[in-house]
## 1
Amino acid sequence: MLRKPPKEPPKEQPSRHISSLPPDLIAKIIGFLPVSELSKAARLSRRFKVLTYSDDVYEPKLRQLGVHVAAAAAVVPAEGGSAGTAAAGADSGDELVVRLRQLPGGQFLSTQASYLETGSLLVRSSGKPARLEFKEIFTQLAPLYFDFRHRQKDSKLFREHKDLPEIGALLFRLRLLDRARFSDDAEDISFSLETTIEWFESMVLGQFESAYDRSDVAEMRKTATALYNLNGGLACVNVFISKNPIFFDHTYNPSLVASKLPATVGPSVGYALADDFAKFMDYMLANCTKQAELISQIFVPNLNAMTLFVNKVFEDSISEYMSAILAAAKTRENVATYLHTIATSIYLCTQFIDFISKNAQGVYVDADAARRAMIEIVRPYSDEYIELEMDFLNKRIKTELEKWDKRKSKDAKAVSPSSGQFFRAEQVQAHKRFVMNTMKAVIFAPVTLTKTLAQIGSGKSKPHRQALLNDAEPISADISPASDADHDGTVTYHLDDNSLNSLVSLELSLHLMHANKEALGRALVVAASTDMSKLRANVQRVFIALLKAVGERHIKVAFAKAMERMSKSGPVDESVNDKMVNMDSLQFFELVHVADLIQQMVDVYYNEDVKIWIDEQDFLSDIIVEKKNFERVLDDGVASGMDKAIQLQVNQCEYILLKQQKATDYNPPENGLFDWKPSEACESVITCLNAHTKLMSGVTEKNTMEVFLSEVGVRLFAVTIKNIRRLQVSQTGAMQLICDTNRYYEWATSVRVTSVSRLFSVLKELGNLFLADGSEELRKLVHDAPRYQGALRIEEIYELLQSRTDYRKIQKQVEAKDCLVM
């Protein structure tokens, strides 16, 4: 038998009574009632009284009236009560509070409030309940507000109050009350109130304008404060700006800028434009400073009137005059003048902002807002600046390189070691110091963008002039001019006067660095003043242009030319120069010296002016990669050219031996006389080596010199052995050979390279092979391995013995092998 399922109890229908709603929702609903109806809602029940008196109802109304509501709370007695009453009420009201918070939505009621039967309310930080504070405000404003039902200009507000700032503040509060719509007929009152406010604003603004025309500062301040209390007072600021004489001053007329320029072209034009704009900005700063004092007397500080005034100065006066200055710079068709003027103008604008924001009157100026206004007026010029700068810089680099090529082709001639154009060893450090000091004086001279600009408004000028233009004057009188143009267009490079090198130029590199420094200075000014996000990228582009010009297009080309010359070079005859020094080899080592100096100059410039603007930790950035490539150019050039230079030197020594070493030197006639002196060929080789070493020491670093001499020693040893093999040596001639080997050993010890000295000590021992008489003694010398220190194998020693004149007689005894019995 199946049982029927039990019937479900009927679902409880939701209550349709308002009392069943959550307390927070009821409080929100009560908040929408007109103020006049709130007392009726409070009389409905004890619960509705508590909800109607709660701050959840009155705090939104206070906010509508512009009153700040704090979150802190405390319990105080209601109006007419006492502390004791409040405490008793708190005890009796706990049960009601608990019940209210247990209802749905009760958790949203303030946890810091006590809802009491006596009417104790949430106390705000001001010390008054929200209902009482609203009551005070409403009681004060309601009579004035409701009077506008029937009156406007003759309302109670104007009859009871005569002070304009006070009237402005009350009208502002009445407007807030009107917009809160606390009354049923608020729409009718609103029209009358708004009409009155418009009339009051127009009347006060007219009084402000009349006071401005009379220069009545007190009246201007009163009317400006009235409008500030009413609606912020911007209308007064606009009147002050529109009537201000600074905008009608024709002392600096933009239409007359072009007429002030000199008739000639050159750096004077660029400085004339920059100096004129600097004077204009100085004049504007003086006028704005005077207006700051007046603004401080008229407007309240919160209005920030000075910032609005400065922005208007930028938008109207400065913008117009800057456009005229830059247009004049463009008409001269001189990119250098234009770039110089852009950077100067932007720099002057930033200086203007810095000075006016720190005015002596203490008037606040929002520097960020002024800077934004400045950025807007220079944006059309700053957006295209970096492309123009790079194009101009690349053209200037190209021009300098072409001048150098022209000079190089003109001066491509042989130089004699006796011409005095070689650096002596004692001169090299002095030369380095001179070059680096000159470079630092030129590159690190203080940069100023105009001839007369030091600090705006200071009235002082700096004692130097930075050559920012292509054909500008030198930086200071104690430094030789960078270049002097001859009548035929060639250029004299003074830092290169004592150099025999026609492949690379210190002066040219200094020119390029100077041009790069100027471009970098302008790029930093423009980027730092307009868009800091572009600063690092612009610095990288400018410096990379220098690295490529000096490295790829100058040093690398010079090394390639030096390699080509050394590849075609041959031994030098005595008729060319008495010391028979190979000039191509020496020129290569001077090239290494000069290129190293250039690299040091670039490093100093990079560390002082570039490194601070980039991220050195980003090893994949373009500037870090290009700098490593620049350093590799010198390393690759030295590595590829060193071998050829060494071989040229050794070939020259071999040439001397072949030409001057006589057959009778080591195999003299039987009746010949021996003078115990090195042979003429030996002395010539030593003279050539010493002359080349001495000249090289003036243009070569110590480490490079040591590597060079070490390799020369190894190859010269081989050439000397080869020279002995091709000659016949008698026992008498062995004495001459010993003199020569001793002389070679003296040279080897003089260069102070350990490996060379050790090698030529072996050469000195070879004389005994030709002096020994008996075959047994000779065999011992041949097999004395420690004597030759591994420099010669036994096979090579036997080959040398074949140069003995009596070798056929002793060959069997010398080459006989010992019989060993096992």
## 2
Amino acid sequence: MAKSEVEGSSSLRHAFGGVLSVFILLLIGVVAFSIRLFSVIKYESVIHEFDPYFNYRVTQFLSKNGIYDFWNWFDDRTWYPLGRVIGGTVYPGLTLTAGTMWKLANSLNIPLSVETVCVFTAPIFSAFAAWATYLLTKEVKGPGAGITAAAILAMVPSYISRSVAGSYDNEAVAIFALIFTFYLYIKTLNTGSLFYATLNSLAYFYMVCSWGGYTFIINLIPMHVLLCIVTGRYSSRLYIAYAPLVVLGTLLAALVPVVGFNAVMTSEHFGSFLVFIIIHVVALVYYIKGILTPRLFKVATTLVLTVGIAVCAVVVAILVALVASSPTKGWSGRSLSLLDPTYASKYIPIIASVSEHQPPTWPSYFMDINVLAFLVPAGIVACFLPLSDASSFAVLYLVTSVYFSGVMVRLMLVLAPAACIMSGIALSEAFGVLTRSMKFHITKYFECSHTEAPAKLGERTSAESSAPLENMTKSDTTEKPEVARKEKVARRKQKKEKELTENAHVKPVSAKKEKRPLVLPLEASIVSVFLLIVLGGLYVLHCVWAAAEAYSAPSIVLTSHSHDGLHVFDDFREAYAWLRHNTEVDDKVASWWDYGYQTTAMANRTVIVDNNTWNNTHIATVGTAMSSPEKAAWEIFNSLDVKYVLVVFGGLVGYPSDDINKFLWMVRIGGGVFPHIKEADYLRDGQYRVDAHATSTMLNCLMYKLSYYRFVETDGKGFDRVRRYEIGKKHFKLTHFEEVFTTHHWMVRIYKLKPQKNRIRGKSRKSKLGTKSTSTKSGGMTHKNPWN
């Protein structure tokens, strides 16, 4: 009877705990979604940054024209005159996800625009990512650690920076896919279920569709498999978790047009194939060991190892031959930049020019993960107590993500889930020890109070028993046997407990220490719990501040605070609206590649280069034009059929991310293709200057003239608030370009190329005679290349 009551109370407790866990996870999802809405509350529902505008434009096309037209879409408004095949050059996961959500909402008669769905896609998937973190951490260290890790990830600033409302980029869904793929891998590893292995391959396929960072998965999991094999932890569960992923996952990845045969032809994937061969050799050895005698097994092992080494040698030779035939050894430029942090700065300046590809500083770690930096080491220690396949994977994930985040600040996003998992494990283990200690001391206190109460009761009973015996009633006499029986049972129970205590003292001290859990003093436990709660409160405050102030402002709309209040700078949308309403539909606009996506999406005009950066020569051509004198720049732009040139200038309002600050990268990229552009010509004693000490090459290049034209009229001095000094060349005129529009705060300036008939004065007769004389000559005349 008592046993059934205990089982009933235990099942009731587990059911209540499950309901409470679901409720907490729902709250975590609400927090993850809500904390990312500051950008909408403080500003408006608008797409952020640069790349999201391209994704938004592609999603619009998908929702309007359908999936088949999307796969075959040739976009002639980008990379003029080359164009771009969109369906074969984008990771379609984000677009297909948002398009499906929009279609589902409209099928349910929920009237949402495509832009609204795109704005809120990232906050929605941040809640999914938090739940996936719970599942992953639960498989590693239990549900308590999972709930803690999910709550931490829901608010971590590093993830918020790429998932606020309006941040419609690939990482919005890719981080969820990354964590969910890892969860299914660990789930398969713990259960050995082929069903979860198949789901793992499908999750990996979704990750491949969503982000180029899928190569991190297909290299991290083989590293963990190899680690398990080397440390003697091979099992059939490990084989089931890995083999289907390589076979089915690679086949599915090859179906994505942007990946295609790269899934089997690039060096990023070769490591997974090599581990695939190794695990089959190991599986064969274990199988033979189970069916042969020890003597025959030794002979068979020698044979298998000989054949295996020969096969591996052939495979390695083929891989080496394939790698050696490639100038980059089979690696992409971004992958080589991760393996060699100096590679991009030496050979691919277009990659090094991107701010998010720079190494992070130490303060950025404390900004993006805050107190997690101190909790992670404790989580690593907890993973080794005891060490399992799942916990070893978590440690390996953390170590590799720490390295990659140190190479490229953008990959702090990959570090965030690992840091949250480790911090969740550390906090869960710490709270477990502290609460257990508090419970032990409190229980001990109540037990002592209960043992003192019967003693006092016995004294009172003995005093009452001294009363005259004639007061006893007949009922008292009948109750004596029952009381005597209960006392006998109690004495027997006390004797048994005493024997157990004596036997425990006889046991060795080492065995006693192994079985007894860690118990801390009550005062220390209470203080530690209080300090951990305070630490969590400080973390929440920092995360809310980062979400509200640091990462909520969209780059398309800027704000600043001064003594006279808040100032809003909406110059970008003002400039793009002017282009849309005051230029022809087929006009071409030249600008640095940073603004290509926004120009195409918001102004609906054809651009020469954009943020895809797939053609370095085309970008170098624009960089050469910006670095050249006005006449040479006009000839380059005219040969590209450009009609308008857009530059971003922050010297008046103090906007630091303008084209003058990016200009040296234009020089380096242009000089990498066209050698007559030399960086040293734009530097004075190794310093980049635009004041009176600037070089003549710098003062006469197109970028300087388009940025500072009429700038002296603003204050009479031409003081640049970004560079913090007066410009060198203040009064000059443009001969080949004319200013057509400058925004309210001078942040965006648009110029139009002057036609040739207005450019050449008093020479029309001479040019006609020259044309007539050249027409009588043979057609072997060569024109001067304006790019040289």
